[in-house]
Design brief:
MetI-like fold
Length: 307
């Protein structure tokens, strides 16, 4: 029921025409409800419009997915050689290289981002070379953001790669070398197929880690919509604007993606462990059969059986 100028006007809004209802709302401006206090119609409409406008920033999400995919692809090309060298190099001081690779795990992202910003700036050799080549600086660009993300996610790819390479049976490598296979052929035909789960784990972890980057992204790329604005920065901006509902929508997407990525990693590790146990069990049974055959052959020839 709506009161206007002391007169009581009863209108069933459900059956009224849309234009009539809008005109009535504009003139009245106040809706009286038996359960709630007086609420201005204009404020109610603005609140509803604001609620339905609170959707995800699809541009930031697309840029983040593109960045994560490029970082994962780059880390496969860069991380495999580094992991191979760390695993099989006889250099006694290689632990220093391992410490440098793992440094982003313990270094604050703002510290790493600060030094990357200096390294990519116009006063550095890399920054000057890039500016001469392209006409603009490398900092606060998507290319600079990509380079910083690769360095920041490097240990998330290299460490699973190296762990999977170290788990390969050395006897297989020795057999490959005995058959005359080169190191490249041994890597692609023996090491890499047996390390598939570890390689896939590194790719998934680096992809998921890049999705949630914030400190390095903000220091190196800034907050430029369509260029360096990622999902994590979008969440931060929405929280700063006290737009918690929109921030929650975006955060839920990252939460689900991160949970699925970790579930995939643990499932692959569990599958690899079960296959590894079965593999070593079959090898043990095969070795026992070989020893049994040798013992039988030795007894037939009159020799003493081997212990």
């Amino acid at each position: 029921m709506v009161r206007l100028g002391g007169e009581v006007v009863c209108a069933w809004l459900c059956s009224a025409d849309t234009l009539v209802r809008e005109a009535l709302f504009e003139r009245v401006g106040v809706l009286v409800s038996s359960r709630s206090p007086a609420i201005t119609i204009a404020g109610k409409i603005r609140k509803l419009q604001s609620k339905y406008r609170q959707t995800m920033d699809w541009q930031a999400l697309a840029l983040t997915l593109r960045l994560a995919a490029l970082v994962s692809a780059a880390l496969v090309c860069l991380g495999l050689p580094i992991a191979y060298w760390i695993t099989y190099s006889p250099w006694r001081w290689k632990f220093l290289v391992e410490a440098v690779v793992a440094l982003p795990l313990v270094l604050p992202p703002t510290v790493l981002g600060f030094y990357l910003l200096i390294a990519l700036g116009p006063r550095s050799p890399l920054g000057r070379w890039w500016q001469v080549l392209t006409g603009h600086t490398l900092a606060f660009t998507f290319e600079g953001l990509l380079l910083g993300s690769i360095l920041y996610s490097l240990p998330f790819a290299v460490q699973p790669f190296a762990a999977s390479f170290a788990a390969v049976d050395p006897r297989l490598l020795a057999a490959s070398a005995t058959l005359g296979a080169s190191r490249w052929r041994t890597f692609f035909r023996v090491i890499l197929p047996l390390s598939g789960v570890g390689v896939l784990t590194g790719v998934v972890l680096s992809f998921a880690h890049t999705l949630g980057e914030f400190g390095v992204v903000l220091m190196v790329g800034g907050n430029i919509p369509g260029v360096t604005r990622t999902v994590s920065i979008d969440i931060f901006d929405k929280v700063q604007a006290v737009d918690y509902e929109a921030a929650n929508q975006t955060a839920l997407v990252l939460l689900v993606v991160s949970f699925l990525a970790l579930s995939l990693v643990y499932a692959m590790n569990r599958y690899a462990m079960s296959r590894g146990a079965l593999f070593f069990g079959l090898n043990h049974i095969g070795a026992r059969k070989i020893d049994t055959n040798k013992i039988g052959t030795s007894n037939e020839n009159g020799g003493a059986p081997r212990a």
